[in-house]
Design brief:
Blueprint: H1 3-11, H2 15-27, E1 34-39, E2 45-50, H3 51-75, H4 84-106
Antiparallel strand pairs: 1-2
Helix pairs in contact: 2-3, 2-4, 3-4
Length: 107
């Protein structure tokens, strides 16, 4: 990646939750009414959420990870390598969300 792109994502890391939320909004009508989030060892569903709750789940998780990475840097307590953790956390959760949408829409 170009250093300019890394600097942009470092400054605007909140863009990942926005992109994920937009993708979830477009996929909303294709999702089933109840989405399982946890299964036991026998394959029984332990915890399921509605599709409205699901579209907010990953973007909020991304936002919390963004804040958790940025807050120590803002306070000057801990130096984290410039932009790498921001980009990695946002991108991994974005790909995870796309994977979950693929699995739930495919059914």
């Amino acid at each position: 990646m170009s250093r300019r792109i890394i600097n942009y994502f470092y400054k605007c890391g909140y863009i990942f939750p926005v992109i994920t939320f937009i993708i979830n909004i477009f996929a909303y009508k294709y999702l089933p009414e109840s989405i399982p989030l946890q299964r036991d060892t026998f394959g029984n569903i332990n915890y399921a959420v509605s599709k409205l709750e699901f579209i907010f789940f990953i973007p909020i998780l991304q936002l919390f990870s963004y804040i958790a990475i940025k807050y120590p840097q803002a306070k000057g307590k801990k130096k984290i390598f410039h932009g790498t953790y921001d980009i990695a956390a946002g991108a991994i959760l974005l790909f995870f969300d796309i994977f979950l949408l693929y699995v739930f829409i495919r059914k």
